[in-house]
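Sanity check. The docking grid for heme C depends on where the pocket ends up, so I'm generating a full predicted complex first rather than guessing from homology. Inputs follow.
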Amino acid sequence: MRILSFVVVALAGLVLSVSLLAAGNDKPRAVGSMQELMTGIIQPTSDAVFYVSRTPPQSDADWLDMERQTLMLAESANLLLIPGYREDGERWLTDVEKMRVAAEAALKAAKDRDMDTLIDLNNDLYMSCESCHEAIR
Ligand code: HEC
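Predicted complex below; grid placement will be based on this.
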């Protein structure tokens, strides 16, 4: 009896996961608009890097916050590749990659508590935003 109920539960789980797959629940999909992603996540998290010399992290909590901001920024490069945000063309992919590389380097610098590198990365990060915005204009 116990085995039977185990089988029933296992089968129910299988049916559920198959129908979730069929519904496309294994695929990422955009929740916000491009404008919301830019102003809600990418702009504030990149500002943390752009204004780092104005308000330098001092305590461990400040640095931890910088780690979180740069992680969010780097992960949002992945969001720019999912349906709903992604746009066609090589240029899009190149610019997303530029943003990702700069943000990942900023995350590493935050983990290393390396202020100089964070300041140096400002330019690369800024260029990634500008390059994509220029291309879509
Ligand atoms: C790969 C492309 C791409 C990259 C990289 C990119 N953006 Fe954008 N951004 C867009 C697109 C597309 C829009 C237009 C959204 C709209 O208004 O429809 C936009 C719009 C914006 C806006 C204006 C939103 C509004 O109010 O209309 C801001 C602010 C912005 N981006 C900030 C940034 C910053 C800061 C970075 C770099 C850290 C960045 N973006 C990197 C594609 C990109």
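Relevant for the grid: The chain has two domains: 1-28, 31-136.
Also worth noting: The longest helix spans residues 90-111.
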